[in-house]
Write a structure and sequence with these properties.
Blueprint (H helix, E strand, L loop, with lengths): L4 E6 L3 H12 L4 E4 L11 E4 L2 E4 L12 H8 L8 E4 L3 E4 L4 E4 L3 H11 L4 H13 L2 H8 L4 H8 L3 H9 L13 H12 L3 E4 L5 H12 L3 E3 L4 E8 L2 E6 L4 E9 L4 H6 L7 H4 L8 E9 L4 H4 L4 E5 L12 H5 L5 E5 L14 E9 L4 H22 L3 H4 E7 L1 H8 L30 E3 L12 H19 L12
Parallel strand pairs: 1-2, 1-12, 2-9, 6-14, 12-18
Antiparallel strand pairs: 3-4, 5-8, 6-7, 10-11, 11-12, 13-16, 13-17, 14-15, 15-16
The chain binds flavin-adenine dinucleotide.
Length: 484
């Protein structure tokens, strides 16, 4: 049977786009099918009334020292991507103190010691352990721990443990459940590396990847959803889409949530079918996107991403429990302010602001009942932090976990795919080379020690998927091993 394409990639999230670039670069005929009208998945931006908002991802880490910078060099996207350094990278406002994380580690260390003078020695020991020890040494010591247990080993004060727990918003899992290995990788690869903002909106990043993919000969179609994948014979898949395309290919690479695919894929036995329903997914998010008449100069000066904890209940930061959300009782909220662009140039006195709480999916009915009430509650809470906020609002729109699911088809609107919790962070639970010959995965619905989530994680998984496919096709993988 003739093939339409050697490889079809389902979804143009960052994992799918990175894999597509490597595969097209090695001369393979690759098609990406994307259901949305733009590329990027959670890393997209949208426009409303002259404001541009980032739907999910608010900054890119792991570029200076981590994996993403190396990947962008290998696929040669770095020259085509304008990156603005964000420094400080994070500000954490706790009930009794305020702390900043900088792109320069020594500055961050000094900040922690200034805020917690009594904990100087444990702070130095902790950072030395998570940042500067050989990764395999760290892995062997923490592989059976949760992140909370690791924090307990170093610190006695709840305040410092809660501060580190706030930062796990970057993987969508509470510190009480998070795998310590995944959390250590998050700190090494992302939180304590510099972070950047691409071009004039987050969309600039996936758009640069699409330009590269097409320049390498790749094809991408938008506004079409893959609805069925059938294994026709050992070396052939038939991929059917919502608009009626029926395409044949030798390899399918799924960058989408695989739960349904594993249950429905015709003509193929797979062990993953047994486990997808038993795995826990990461937290989703409730967001309020605000268009403001004036720039928030005083507030923005302090950093692009500001997390505010209203108490020290670190088990209710990520996600905030449904019962608390229903009462408008929020333990932690994140303010994201795109400092670069993100506003149409004709309106450049204005600014956009996103309020976010980590939230569970619960049900469509729950969000239909609570969306407006929770939006109003977040506006009140934000108004207590930012002076004159209420007078400044020109536009406000909320997105619930149901919205997150609708735009990306991620199960339960999960922001980070499978939860990187202890016991669920092994490569072989949902492996990238699946048990169905010719079906591979890239993105945050594969499992691994680092949870494969966030832009650095899914980028690495996209690279890994390409490496597996290229090796399995008997071609040479020409890039060096990337060490964590
Ligand atoms: C609110 C929020 C904020 C975040 N902030 C950050 C951050 O600042 N930094 C960071 O590193 N990470 C952040 N993350 C996490 C990060 O966005 C994700 O882990 C990562 O982007 C997921 O990438 P992915 O490749 O797995 O694909 P996804 O982003 O999940 O994209 C999947 C793509 O596949 C498409 N698709 C799905 N099913 C089909 C189908 N059947 N047919 C065709 N197309 C299909 C979807 O439309 C989508 O484009 C955030 C997440 C959220 C929700």
């Amino acid at each position: 049977m003739d093939m339409d394409h050697e490889i079809i990639i389902i979804g143009s999230g960052i994992g799918g786009l990175i894999a597509g670039c490597y595969l097209a670069k090695s001369g393979l005929n690759v098609l990406i099918v994307e259901q949305h009208d733009k590329a990027g998945g959670y890393c997209t931006s949208f426009k409303r009334k002259g404001y541009t908002f980032d739907a999910g991802v608010h900054n890119l880490g792991s570029i200076d020292k981590g994996v993403l910078g190396k990947i962008l060099m290998e696929i040669e996207v770095h020259q085509d991507l304008e990156l603005h350094l964000i420094d400080p990278t994070n500000r954490i406002i706790m009930p009794d103190f305020d702390l900043k994380i900088y792109s320069n580690f020594d500055q961050t260390l000094a900040e922690f010691i200034k805020v917690f003078p009594g904990e100087e020695l444990p702070i130095r020991r902790f950072f030395d352990f998570i940042l500067f020890q050989d990764f395999l040494t760290v892995y062997s010591k923490v592989k059976k721990m949760t992140f909370k247990r690791l924090l307990d080993d170093f610190f006695s004060e709840d305040a410092i443990k809660a501060t580190f727990s706030v930062l796990l918003g970057n993987m969508g899992v509470s510190s009480l459940e998070a795998s310590a290995v995944a959390a250590v990788i998050l700190f090494r690869q992302y939180v304590l590396d510099a972070v950047y903002y691409p071009g004039d909106s987050m969309q600039a990043f996936p758009d640069a990847l699409v330009r590269k993919f097409k320049a390498l000969g790749g094809l991408i179609v938008f506004k079409d959803k893959v609805i069925k994948v059938e294994k026709a014979k050992p070396q052939t898949f038939t991929v059917s889409t919502e608009t009626g395309r029926v395409l044949r290919c030798g390899i399918v690479l799924s960058n989408s949530d695989v739960s349904e695919l594993y249950k429905e894929i015709a003509g193929a036995k797979n062990k993953e079918r047994e486990v997808v329903d038993s795995l826990q997914v990461s937290s989703s998010a409730f967001c309020v996107y605000l268009g403001l008449k004036d720039k928030l100069s005083e507030f923005t000066k302090t950093g692009g991403c500001i997390a505010k904890a209203f108490n020290y209940k670190m088990d209710s930061y990520i996600p905030v429990p449904a019962l608390d959300l229903g009462r408008g009782d929020v333990s932690m909220m994140v303010f994201s302010i795109p400092e670069y662009g993100a506003i149409d140039s004709s309106q450049n006195n204005k600014s956009g602001l996103r309020l976010l709480v980590f939230a569970p999916y619960v049900s469509e009915e729950f969000w239909a009942q609570n969306k407006e009430r929770l939006k109003d509650r977040l506006l009140v809470l934000a108004g207590q932090t930012i002076s004159r906020l209420a007078d400044n609002i020109e536009f406000a729109e909320a997105a619930t976990p149901v919205t997150m699911r609708r735009y990306t088809s991620n199960r339960a609107g999960a922001g980070f795919g499978w939860a990187a919790i202890w016991g669920q962070s092994k490569v072989n639970i949902i492996p990238q080379r699946s048990s169905i010959e010719g079906l591979y995965l890239a993105g945050h619905w594969t499992t691994g020690p680092m949870g494969q989530s966030g832009v650095p994680g899914v980028s690495l998984s996209g690279r890994k998927a390409a490496e597996l496919i290229i090796n399995d096709l008997g071609k040479k993988w020409e890039y060096p091993l990337i060490k964590l």
